[in-house]
Amino acid sequence: LETDAKREGSDHLYGLLWFNEHNRNVEDHLIENRFIDVLVSTGANISEDILEAIGGTYWQGSPQVDDAELLKHRIDRFYDVYVDEMEYRRMENFISDFARGLKQNHAYSSREFLHLLGKHLSEMKIKCIVSTAYENNVPIFCPAICDSGYGIAMLLAKRQGHSVNMDRIKDVDESTRVAERVKQTGVIYIGGGVPKNFTQQVAVILTLEEGDHNLTPHKYAVQITTDSPQWGGLSGCTFEEAVSWGKISPNGRHVQCYCDATIALPILAHALDESVSNRRNHPDFTWLSNTK
Amino acid sequence: LETDAKREGSDHLYGLLWFNEHNRNVEDHLIENRFIDVLVSTGANISEDILEAIGGTYWQGSPQVDDAELLKHRIDRFYDVYVDEMEYRRMENFISDFARGLKQNHAYSSREFLHLLGKHLSEMKIKCIVSTAYENNVPIFCPAICDSGYGIAMLLAKRQGHSVNMDRIKDVDESTRVAERVKQTGVIYIGGGVPKNFTQQVAVILTLEEGDHNLTPHKYAVQITTDSPQWGGLSGCTFEEAVSWGKISPNGRHVQCYCDATIALPILAHALDESVSNRRNHPDFTWLSNTK
Amino acid sequence: LETDAKREGSDHLYGLLWFNEHNRNVEDHLIENRFIDVLVSTGANISEDILEAIGGTYWQGSPQVDDAELLKHRIDRFYDVYVDEMEYRRMENFISDFARGLKQNHAYSSREFLHLLGKHLSEMKIKCIVSTAYENNVPIFCPAICDSGYGIAMLLAKRQGHSVNMDRIKDVDESTRVAERVKQTGVIYIGGGVPKNFTQQVAVILTLEEGDHNLTPHKYAVQITTDSPQWGGLSGCTFEEAVSWGKISPNGRHVQCYCDATIALPILAHALDESVSNRRNHPDFTWLSNTK
Amino acid sequence: LETDAKREGSDHLYGLLWFNEHNRNVEDHLIENRFIDVLVSTGANISEDILEAIGGTYWQGSPQVDDAELLKHRIDRFYDVYVDEMEYRRMENFISDFARGLKQNHAYSSREFLHLLGKHLSEMKIKCIVSTAYENNVPIFCPAICDSGYGIAMLLAKRQGHSVNMDRIKDVDESTRVAERVKQTGVIYIGGGVPKNFTQQVAVILTLEEGDHNLTPHKYAVQITTDSPQWGGLSGCTFEEAVSWGKISPNGRHVQCYCDATIALPILAHALDESVSNRRNHPDFTWLSNTK
What pairs with residue C188 in β-bridges? Predict the structure, then answer.
């Protein structure tokens, strides 16, 4: 990706990298080396890694188990991964405590909220995706942030009398402003879901504002997915299909990798590490942090 | 589902039915006959049907096509379904016009926004899911509403100077209040994604507030999905897994149907129609409409 | 399929229908009404239905079970279907007994073997796919017949001193001779695997013998599958891909249905029943039965 | 696998490794280092690699292409891999020429046929899976051998007057005799299909002959597959399910890897290479080669 962008002689930006789904250590590595300029994530990806960062643990078990027995012991299952429900709640309470320190009369974007949370985590020396992104000036968008422990945490705060306002439109606005400032973008989708569509739709919004002469599809694209095109959904759809919408450039390079991300992403990160010594320059998004 | 709930002798609620993904006519039918009490939807499901309702059309084509050629003619492709980009924009502009009539100094939940849009569409005699739900007092939640034409439409309004605030926390709050008022719930998942998790997480929120003695998992559950459990994601996970989290009751009945919803949902709706003559009573959610 | 063939004005053949995977009653119905001219099957499809035909039963259970416990009680599991191992062995012994009545110094094709077994079952008034096909002069090919209870049954006979010779080449020869006698073919694939490839390869064999001027791909094609094209295998591959090989005609009609056959096949059979009153004429394959 | 078997102190056999699906170089490596004791393969796997071994080439292309155009140029497509039809026929003719040198009044097992073909290829210095297996005394079974270029090749020979008899029962007999001589087995499934079931059924055949006291399920098991358990087929079924049938031991270790084999197999082979310096001893199957 990187290499391609450089070969184009572009000297402004390159390589917006958008993400979702787990693999914390790999993501930390990618963020620290600035292989990621902007991260678009699910809520689970960036909340469940906090569980570990503050002392919790995930266990590998069998997917063939009596779940009513697990419930009795308050162990939550994700296919063959187990976690202690009490540690899950500790993570939710941690976020809820943070939320109670936020302003009530302000509309937050998820990017803004996660910037402040990253600052908080960083000051507490808690190493996780959100804090690493903060330290490296990588903005994180999480359009469906309330569909996760974040939603539960912030409802707890609200019920205790502290209402935080998480405005969805502001997410669309800020991500569009990022796209407006760069000349060329590349995207990497790990999984699909809301983060994929949120990132794809950025490419078509400018057109609506400024007309078809201003079509700015993503030029480079990689997708790692276990979904399939024939179901017709956005998660599994091909980049060819995205070309018809003006979301992906017919002139760029794109690769679809049908594989579980826990297998494919480490291989990709390893290869990136071997082939790219360093990125010469990367976009500065500190202006976003000053955005209210 | 219905039948089961009645057999339980419950006289308060039954059959919360939550939805996402298309099948407009089937959904209209289910709403009008109140087989659905609450609808949780993706943005696409309830925006792309407005395109047709205001005069647009979807076409069936081949998935094997030159997408750069489609782009040239501004035809958007969803696997083997085609649509005119100009009609898509007309739908987005329609929603944008509506949004410009909303209050700027108010935090809207998606339920509240869609209630008002339903009223607007109903007054214009435009028959679609949102207006049908309005007419039948069925609340619609759309937690990731900005991940669709709605997001684009509302950003257009914002750029034209009219900022609507779509607060995500308010969605979590309102859906939890629905759950707090009912004795027993049943859920039907058409696909997975954010609507599934949003609905599942309602079941665990009360526990956090009130303690484990108040565990109120969904009792009845059906899922129609093309995803698979082994990938570990929420969309494809089994109800057994959900039992461990306290989201689904180990004592209720649940069925997973691995099938494309465009095949399975009409069969389900047909069977429901044949076996249930009418629902004796259904919950009244008009109090939600009065919620600000 | 039928309708299409008639519209073509063909008066020789139409509607070779090749099958695999279960659905006994539906298949019986299709065979009796001669919607199937030739059946290509897996071994399981046409042996496991004999288990029921001679008095055994399949039970529906849960896929979440302790299989070591099932083993202790000699209950065999197919995902959520259970069967008594003793009944399975009874079926294998039934076939083994039949095999011991066959000639030892003769090379059998699977078609020939199944014709004789069908006669035997028919005489015993045992109603199953093999006997129904016999009674309706529908030949059955089972290229991987030994990959099932048939293989086990015939090895038992061999170990008891009675060696039956099941020649694979003879299957290829006979199926090619069928194709040589018909003007036009249509194929329906229920699942994929060996039966699909065996049927597809018939279309290319003539070319090798007689040259490219004699390319006779299947004209009509339907596939019901849960596999996906991107894995590159024959089971999930598209009919477009098959066009490149000369297996499927670019001028015919073909439909791929990504669905479990237990859902899609009954719908298809029902629709066929409603729309086609009777087949005017169908090919006579009695000459095959006289083949040694 | 290896390591486990040694830990058991077994000094007779270990690591029967059964295979299907491509990856020629990896398989050659595994055979030469005797990480494979017995190979069970599809026909395509061991015929399409001969195409390359005798000078042909596979090309990577796009899956989005006009297949009627490919047909015109006689280019065959496997998803995104292309091959020249003339080279495919050259491979088939090569096998057909070999087949015309075999005895006509003899019933061959696929193992026997492939042993002789391996000898022939080895003498011609053609390096491919079949010749490498021959040189390393690794028997290959190919139960559905006629469902591939082999079937076409042998039909061509038959039509030219030279009938080879490929007896399916003999395959079941010989593979069972292998199993009867070893104390403990481990299996690795690359994909599913007939090779998987053929290998699984070996474990239950002895029981039928000798009674339930002689249950000898495979102790170690690995599967790499893109299929899923919920469809109920043998290809995607879990090893837990196989435990109920007595095919897989409840006391052994087994791992299911849901991944495309072209990604997973090289990783597996690499790890095996790093962790196992050499196999101390491996079973001698030369007695099989003397089997007529």
Answer: C222
